[in-house]
Specification:
The complex is a heterodimer.
Chain A: E1 4-7, E2 10-13, E3 19-25, E4 32-38, E5 44-51, E6 57-58, E7 67-73, E8 76-81, E9 90-97, E10 106-107, E11 111-115
Parallel strand pairs in A: 2-11
Antiparallel strand pairs in A: 1-3, 3-8, 4-5, 4-9, 5-6, 7-8, 9-10, 9-11
Chain B: E1 4-7, E2 10-14, E3 19-25, E4 29-37, E5 43-48, E6 52-56, E7 59-64, E8 69-74, E9 83-91, E10 97-99, E11 103-108
Parallel strand pairs in B: 2-11
Antiparallel strand pairs in B: 1-3, 3-8, 4-5, 4-9, 6-7, 7-8, 9-10, 9-11
The chains are: A mainly beta, B mainly beta.
Chain lengths: ~120, ~110
C-alpha cells in the first residue's frame, strides 16, 4: 500500500506556543489530504480536508484560525496548532488519497500533542 | 450525516478463537474500509471493500452494500491481533470518511 509519513510523532509544548505537524505522501502524489483528531478511547473525528493549491475545508465546530492547514505541494500538508492550550492535547492523524474524492485512504503514524 | 455503528464494542478472546465484527451504516456508500489501530496509534489498512468479499490470510471481510453492513472475520486469533478495529465509510456523494466507534479486541494467551 501507499506510505504516508507524519512528523513529529510526539510533541510537548507550553501553553500559548504554536506547533506544526507535517504529513507527507512518500510514494504517491496526494491531491487530497485529511486531518483527523482522536481523543483517548474515542474514534477519529475529521477536522478538515485539504486540497493541493486551494484552501482547506473545515468541519463544523473546528476553528480554522486555530488549526491552520497548508497543502502547498502534492506530497506535503501541514497542520499548525496556533496558541495551543491544554484542551488541544490530542492525537492528530493525517491521511491521504491519490485521487479526487477518497478512494482508499492511507494514514500516517499520528502525532501525539501534549500542551502543558 | 451518515451513522456508522460497530458491534460489539469490546471483545475478549482466547488465542486461537474465531470472531466476527460487524459494521452497520445508515446510507449508501462509495467506500468502506476496515482498519486495525495498534497500541501505538498507527492505523493499519486491512480492507478496502465497498462491496463483495475479500480475504487476506486469517482475515476476511464481506460487505453487503444493499443491506448496509460489513463483517470482518478473524480466524485463529493471535495476541498480536489485539487493538481497536475501526470501520469507516464514505457516504455516496461525499468525499470524506466517517468512522465508527470501533471494537476493542483483546486476545489473551
Amino acid at each position: 500500500g501507499a506510505v504516508v509519513s507524519q512528523h513529529p510523532s510526539r510533541v510537548i509544548c507550553k501553553s500559548g506556543t504554536s506547533v506544526k505537524i507535517e504529513c507527507r505522501s512518500l510514494d504517491f502524489q496526494a491531491t487530497t489530504m485529511f486531518w483527523y483528531r482522536q481523543f483517548p478511547k474515542q474514534s477519529l473525528m475529521l477536522m478538515a480536508t485539504s486540497n493541493e493549491g486551494s484552501k482547506a475545508t473545515y468541519e463544523q465546530g473546528v476553528e480554522k484560525d486555530k488549526f491552520l492547514i497548508n497543502h502547498a505541494s502534492l506530497t506535503l500538508s501541514t497542520l499548525t496548532v496556533t496558541s495551543a492550550h491544554p484542551e488541544d492535547s490530542s492525537f492528530y492523524i493525517c491521511s491521504a488519497s491519490a485521487g479526487r474524492g477518497t478512494g482508499e485512504l492511507f494514514f500516517g503514524e499520528g502525532s501525539r500533542l501534549t500542551v502543558l | 450525516g451518515i451513522q456508522v455503528e460497530q458491534s460489539p464494542p469490546d471483545l475478549i478472546l482466547q488465542e486461537g478463537a474465531n470472531s466476527t465484527l460487524r459494521c452497520n451504516f445508515s446510507d449508501s456508500v462509495n467506500n468502506l474500509q476496515w482498519f486495525h489501530q495498534n497500541p501505538w496509534g498507527q492505523l493499519i489498512n486491512l480492507f478496502y471493500i465497498p462491496s463483495g468479499t475479500k480475504q487476506n490470510g486469517r482475515l476476511s471481510a464481506t460487505t453487503v452494500a444493499t443491506e448496509r453492513y460489513s463483517l470482518l472475520y478473524i480466524s485463529s486469533s493471535q495476541t498480536t491481533d489485539s487493538g481497536v478495529y475501526f470501520c469507516a465509510v464514505e457516504r455516496r456523494g461525499y468525499s470524506t470518511l466517517t468512522f465508527g466507534k470501533g471494537t476493542m479486541l483483546l486476545v489473551s494467551p
